[in-house]
Design goal:
The structure holds two protein chains of two kinds. Chain A is α+β, with helices and mostly antiparallel strands. Chain A contains 17 helices and 18 strands. Chain B: This is Glycolate oxidase.
């Protein structure tokens, strides 16, 4: 009997009926997340309903030395929820209760399987919403958002998951249930945990901040003949001191794909479109809108459309939000990247991507959060043509190199996961990575929580050298305080 | 801290001193001004680069020296006294703006730069770091180490929310970076969060990179006053029995005003309470900034009641920590009479508490301060960002009364799921004072500390759980 089999035999006692999946066909359902080219069939899948059940499963994993991976809705784009064939996949889809809504305290407590949008839907009638809005918000889970520190189009103004989570109940890799709260004194373990991609434990309850809905929202779409002019408009908006809720840009190829897929009806002949959303107090939005519209025209926009209703706003966003999937209409396969560059480096980096297209003989569609320099280049290829996938992969890596050379990052919101772990040493020194791993060793010295993600090579934690066991001698002697 | 006297021989000390001197970093003997919360260090090291910080820390590791980093020294009396302190690592010579790319709204600054000097450099480009640091002279390193923030935390959050990159030097001299110079970045663990508010116990911050905001074109305040809780009684004497219901009434009114302003779609960036003496009147003030600020502030003013007003100037108390009120007639008079005419140095001799409570529980928290003040005969001041869940409480009393005040207030606050931390207390009040209160994940914090500083030499004993 293998270790995993012995562990599996004990799972039944820790979980409700029907919560342990061992049937090979059903296991295959969980073999990948949103990044489908990394696949592994999990050893066993569990569907716990409570934090105590998650803790019980994790304790068994600790006892048997078996790795575990947490999974929410499986929409991640970095292979962060890629299972282990020799491990347990802990799926939070049955933990979907909204536990508490406290409008006066501007917060809600939810279980990890609750979808991002469900929080907003639960409080919208009372004039509140949950700010982070990843494109997958209709299905992605809040637990996954915590693991990835998810952003979204509106994080330019409102920040990321980490700026909107007030407390977490966490199952640590040794199976303990602890509370991490922004209220508590001590290290900001809450901040360190969010975005750790499941490598420090599993969040089992999440206290989120609710934001007051803005009084006014205005969305405009500006069409430019080329991407450079669009880029100039972005810089001019920022230089004017305007902080839009979102500034998104698409290039001609991305527009072509979106038109083919969802017929978004963007202005014909556009070499680039810019979507700018302003929100806030009506008086402020009106003034900022006047400024943004003028800037767009001054920088060469040949058409500016303004959404006058929620329907028209949805129509403008439709093309942008469908862009990833739409690329499937114009290319058999594609790789999506998530690099970030300082905003001022955008023109140079886009020109560099252009050159890479020629060099590798492949096409790249650009869809990006222009306001914060977060690129989502879609590297298109035909997987039936021998060698093209490799060329696309190589070009993707070169794009990330470009981002790093310009002082940027290899990932702005998708996470490192299994997909970009090998690029981490290009962005960080060995000392940087070793220092990060000190945190891992503090939480998970055995390396059982989502191993193989984020870091290219595991660190052997070992015993802490020279650590005093027990209380400090001075405290013992009553000579120093220790509170 | 007599008990913490170093038992090591003079010979060992001499060797350590020689090694420090040989490190190539400027080192001087410590003086009376270098005392850390009552504990004198032996040496002061003055590194000029991250590499020099590393050199000092390597020597310290070799010779088992305890190190306390310091910037402006404005909050060196915060936190518990160190259990030992050999080297005061002064970052004053690391005081440059390393990089400010205005178009990216990002700045990287060295640890020893003061927030005032940074603000001046940024203002020249029409930008700011949107943290209203409440202690003048604070350096970037001190800002990160203590995580203090001011009124606009309501809109922009605190250091953790605006810090996007960091360079730190660990106890063994390792120089490590995390984050970077782009705002949107999820590559790797966020060590910046871990170091924020870590009181120098994990290592030394060498530089930090922040997200900036454009300076707003205009600022307008709306403010309203609220009458003192006790109006009746000869001479206005506050007795506990008479004033408790009145305090609950006032706390309720303040809560309502604060909540109305915080929920306004005019989107104020700060909603502040100032209650200079919890037996007296209070003020609620709200800051609206950016386009159409006057018009929007007027909308908030209407929510604050008929007597509220708008002003273009900040209230005198805005963005500063509260000061303890003068001693009352019945309470702390005997202990503090002697020093009444002398203005003590800002913050010294006072006890400063940080009270955290959910915005839905502000009324209860404010009433708790009032009741605790009367019960212990200790006047107290409250100021802070109640709708952001944080206010500060200042008091000045003898050691016994200070401890009783903190314990009683903490019991009330924690019963309502809040927290109370003693940020600073006079050395004579330090014994027997529980500074940190309830902490949910102390065991994990100890494990983090053990990994980063296995020798327990970085600001030892200053933090939660004796970390």
């Amino acid at each position: 009997m293998s270790t995993l089999e012995r562990l599996t035999a004990r799972l039944g006692a820790a979980l409700p009926p029907e919560a342990v999946i061992t049937d090979p066909v059903r296991l295959r359902t969980y073999e990948c997340d949103g990044l489908t080219y990394h696949r592994a069939t999990p050893g066993v899948v569990v569907l716990p309903e409570t934090a105590e059940q998650v803790a019980a499963v994790v304790r068994l994993c600790a006892e048997f030395g078996v790795p575990f991976v947490a999974r929410g809705s499986g929409t991640g784009l970095s292979g962060g929820a890629l299972p282990r064939t020799d491990g347990v996949l802990i799926v939070t889809s049955r933990m979907r209760r909204i536990l508490e809504i406290d409008i006066a305290g501007r917060r809600a407590v939810v279980e990890p399987g609750v979808t991002n949008l469900a929080i907003t839907e639960a409080v919208r009638d009372q004039g509140y919403y949950y700010a982070p809005d990843p494109s997958s918000q209709q299905i992605c889970s809040i637990g996954g958002n915590v693991a990835e520190n998810s952003g979204g189009a509106h994080c330019l103004k409102y920040g990321f998951t980490v700026n909107h989570v007030l407390a977490l109940q966490v199952v640590t890799p040794d199976g303990e249930i602890v509370e991490l709260s922004e209220q508590d004194a001590g290290y900001d373990l809450l901040g360190a945990f969010i975005g750790s991609e499941g490598t420090l434990g599993i969040a089992t309850a999440i206290t989120v901040r609710l934001s007051r809905a803005p009084e006014a929202v205005t969305t405009l779409l500006a069409a430019f003949t080329d991407i450079e002019s669009g880029g100039q408009a972005v810089s001019a908006v920022i230089a004017a001191g305007v902080l839009p809720a979102a500034i998104e840009m698409m290039d001609a190829l991305a527009i072509e794909a979106a038109e083919a897929a969802v017929h978004c009806g963007y202005p014909p002949g556009a070499g680039a479109v810019l979507v700018v959303e302003l929100d806030g107090p009506r008086a402020e939005v009106e003034r900022q809108f006047t400024a943004v519209e003028r800037i767009c025209r001054d920088t060469g926009a040949f058409e500016v459309r303004v959404a006058a209703s929620a329907e028209e706003r949805a129509a403008i966003w439709k093309g942008r939000k469908s862009a990833f999937a739409a690329v499937g209409r114009i290319s058999p396969a594609y790789i999506v990247q998530d690099g970030v560059v300082p905003r001022t480096a955008l023109p140079e980096v886009l020109a560099g991507i252009d050159r890479l297209q020629d060099e590798y003989g492949i096409r790249v569609a650009n869809v990006f959060h222009a306001g914060d320099g977060n690129l989502h280049p879609l590297v298109l290829f035909d997987d039936s043509v021998p060698g093209e996938g490799e060329r696309a992969e190589a070009a993707s890596g070169r794009i990330l190199d470009l981002c790093i050379e310009h002082g940027g990052s290899i990932t702005g919101e998708h996470g490192v996961g299994v997909d970009k772990a090998r690029y981490m040493p290009r962005m960080f020194t060995p000392d940087d990575l070793d220092t990060m791993q000190l945190v891992r060793c503090a939480f998970d010295p055995e390396g059982l929580s989502n191993p193989g993600k984020v870091f290219p090579t595991p660190r052997l934690c070992g015993e802490v050298p020279g650590v005093r066991k027990g209380v400090h001698p001075l405290v013992e002697a009553g000579l120093a305080e220790q509170f | 801290m007599d008990g913490a006297r170093d038992p090591r021989s003079d010979e060992t000390t001499e060797q350590a001193g020689k090694a420090l001197a040989a490190s190539g970093v400027a080192v001087r003997a410590a003086g009376a001004d270098d005392v850390v919360a009552g504990v004198p260090p032996r040496w002061v090291a003055l590194p000029e680069t991250a590499e020099e910080i590393a050199a000092v820390l390597r020597v310290s590791e070799e010779h088992d020296l305890a190190v306390v980093p310091v910037g402006g020294g404005t909050k060196l009396h915060w936190g518990a006294p160190p259990s030992r302190c050999d080297v005061l690592l002064d970052t004053c010579c690391l005081n440059e703006v390393v990089e400010h790319e205005a178009g990216d709204l990002v700045v990287r600054a060295q640890a020893g730069l003061t927030v005032e000097a940074l603000a001046e450099a940024l203002a020249a480009k029409g930008q700011e770091l949107a943290l209203d640091v409440p202690v003048p002279g604070t350096t970037i390193g001190g800002l990160v180490a203590t995580a203090i923030a001011g009124p606009r935390r309501f809109r922009y959050g605190t250091v953790r929310d605006l810090l996007i990159g960091i360079t730190v030097v660990l106890a063994d001299g390792t120089i490590a970076h995390a984050g970077g110079k782009v705002v949107k970045n999820v590559a790797g663990y966020d060590l910046g969060k871990l170091f924020t508010g870590s009181y120098g116990t994990l290592g030394v911050v060498a530089d930090a990179t922040f997200r900036l905001h454009p300076l707003p074109p205009s600022r307008t305040w709306a403010a309203a006053s609220f009458a003192r809780p006790v109006r009746s009684g000869p001479g206005g004497d506050a007795s506990e029995e008479a004033s408790a219901p009145e305090a609950v009434r006032l706390a309720g009114e303040l809560h309502a005003a604060l909540a109305a302003a915080a929920g306004s779609q005019a989107e104020p960036v700060a909603v502040e309470l100032d209650w200079p003496d919890v037996t007296g009147p209070a003020t609620v003030a709200v800051l609206v900034e950016g386009a159409a600020s006057a018009e929007r502030a007027d909308a908030v003013r209407a929510l604050l009641g008929p007597e509220a007003r708008t002003v273009g100037e900040r209230p005198g108390w805005w963005g500063r920590l509260p000061s303890a009120p003068p001693p009352s007639r019945d309470g702390a008079r005997a202990e503090t009479d002697a020093g009444r005419d002398e203005e003590p140095p800002a913050g010294r001799g006072e006890t400063l508490l940080e009270l955290r409570a959910s915005p839905s529980r502000v009324a209860g928290a404010l009433a708790a301060v009032h009741v605790t003040a009367l019960e212990t005969g200790t006047p107290a001041a409250v100021r802070g960002s109640a709708p952001a869940g944080v206010v500060h409480v200042a008091l000045r009393a003898d050691a016994g009364r200070t401890a009783r005040f903190a314990d009683a207030l903490r019991a009330r606050v924690e019963a309502a799921d809040g927290r109370l931390v003693v940020l600073s207390a006079p050395p004579e009040a330090a014994d027997g004072l529980d500074r940190w209160g309830r902490v949910g994940a102390l065991a994990l914090m100890r494990r983090v500390k053990e990994r980063f500083d296995p020798g327990g030499r970085m600001s030892p004993g200053r933090f939660v759980g004796g970390i």
